[in-house]
């Protein structure tokens, strides 16, 4: 499986030949100006919540690729008003089966408003399970005891956790989260894009290493394999 990072919380994974794009915020990201969204292919777009730094490029990419969008009912409703129709809405609960595997929407402690100021519903995290690989994308969230439920659902190969603090967990909380989810292979996201979430990346990696865990911080545009 390949994982390509596009900055902030946006990334693309390929599972069973299907390309899954998460929270595309690329064109407005000052750290991702070398990424051409017109060249990003996607079969599915998963959107954790309605904030601009997670939903900004959904509409143009979805219209060009025809990707199916997986998101909450409120975000789905807003996207429908933007002319998108290929949408599967879901909420917290049992997993939903797609061509690549299953998606379980789980709790995220955050807020969610849409670009027009309307209500964005509950923010989500996603647990993806497949014959190829299993992983957890936390979305934007604080540390929450609900994460302890995730190992009851599946064994994770890796997890994508925010580490920037201020709006989400910081690196120290993400280490605790990795204990809760019983996963030591972590990809850090949602950091360094803006001043309020700038961190010492060397210190974060060292803290994870000291805890016996591996924190991966791919460069924007970099692809890693699992």
UniProtKB/TrEMBL annotation:
Pfam families: Lactamase_B_3. The keyword Hydrolase applies. Keywords: Hydrolase. The keyword Transferase does not apply. Residues 7-190 form the Metallo-beta-lactamase domain. Coiled coil: none annotated. Gene3D superfamilies: Ribonuclease Z/Hydroxyacylglutathione hydrolase-like. One of its GO terms (molecular function) is hydrolase activity. Belongs to the UPF0173 family. HAMAP family: UPF0173. This is UPF0173 metal-dependent hydrolase U0035_09085.
């Amino acid at each position: 499986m390949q994982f390509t990072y596009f900055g902030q919380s946006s990334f693309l994974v390929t599972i069973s030949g299907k390309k899954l794009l998460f929270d595309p915020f690329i064109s407005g990201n000052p750290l991702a100006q070398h990424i051409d969204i017109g060249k990003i292919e996607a079969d599915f777009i998963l959107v954790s919540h309605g904030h601009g730094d997670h939903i900004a490029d959904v509409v143009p990419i979805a219209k060009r690729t025809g990707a199916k969008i997986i998101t909450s009912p409120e975000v789905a409703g807003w996207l429908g008003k933007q002319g998108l129709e290929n949408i599967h809405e879901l909420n917290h609960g049992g997993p939903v089966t797609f061509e690549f595997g299953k998606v379980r929407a789980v709790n995220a402690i955050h807020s969610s408003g849409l670009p027009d100021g309307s209500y964005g519903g509950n923010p989500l995290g996603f647990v993806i399970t497949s014959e190829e690989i299993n992983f957890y994308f936390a979305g934007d969230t604080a540390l929450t005891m609900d994460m302890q439920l995730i190992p009851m659902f599946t064994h994770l190969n890796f997890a994508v956790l925010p580490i920037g603090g201020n709006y989400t967990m910081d690196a120290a909380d993400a280490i605790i989260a990795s204990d809760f989810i019983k996963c030591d292979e972590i990809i850090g996201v949602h950091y360094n894009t803006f001043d309020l979430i700038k961190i010492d990346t060397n210190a974060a990696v060292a803290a994870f290493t000291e805890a016996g865990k591996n924190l991966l911080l791919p460069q924007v545009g970099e692809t890693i394999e699992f």
